[in-house]
Amino acid sequence: MTLTSRVVLLTGAKRIGAEVARAVAARGADVAVVYRRSADEAAAVVSMVEAAGRRALAVQADVSDPAACAAAVALVDETFGRLDVLVNMASLYHQVPFDEVDAAEWTRQLSVDLGGSFFCARAAVPLMRKHGGGRIINFCDWVAASGRPRYKGFLPYYVAKSGVKALTEALALEVAADGILVNAIAPGPILAPPGTSEAELDAVEQATPVGRWGGADEIVKAVLALIDSDFITGETIRVDGGRHLA
User: Fold this and answer.
1) What tens digit of pLDDT does each residue of 168-199 get?
2) What does each C-alpha distance from 2 to 16, 78, 84, 228 come to in angstroms?
3) 213, 191 Cβ separation under 8 angstroms
4) I want to staple 156 with a disulfide (CB 3.0 to 4.6 A). Which of 69, 87, 109, 146 is the partner?
């Protein structure tokens, strides 16, 4: 798929999401971003896309709410008249000891990561069908994509991301005949979380076969490759510098 005059919807407007928006706008796409609290970051993405000569839209929505997902996609349709690419990046990531995982914690994690990906896709598919196809790119995690947990304290996160991988495969089968390709990206050490110490940075580099953090551009490359392809579907691609091999 070429991106000229296409419409891309991103859930998640911070850091890597902003770089993906920059890249697809540079290729000629109009861009919509969904944010929950990051209004300033979303506004910055809109300004950046418009400066590149493309149309842009920021939509405030909580993707854990199915009705909000549907409303966000409807607003994209109303504004641009089409939707060609959905990139589900919205996610929660925090460590919670097992004994502190209550019903609210469990539900919130699965509702954002797995439910948000499904309900945004559910709303997007009819628009993609109307225009002959599209791309859905979900975001998994290198640990979940590797099929076994490695770190304690991330049980709901691991289960949610494993569900995203399963969703990607099942949805790809459901919509392949409509010309909609569904894949997932499973990032590894891409950007260090704020507050990461030098010792922690070094430890990750030493545990990663390529010996470094990837940087946002490696995710951008993967997103663009999955948009470009007309034949890859149902795949989860680890972008982790070989971290799963260590």
Assistant:
1) 999 999 999 999 999 999 999 999 988 899 99
2) 21, 22, 10, 7
3) yes
4) 109
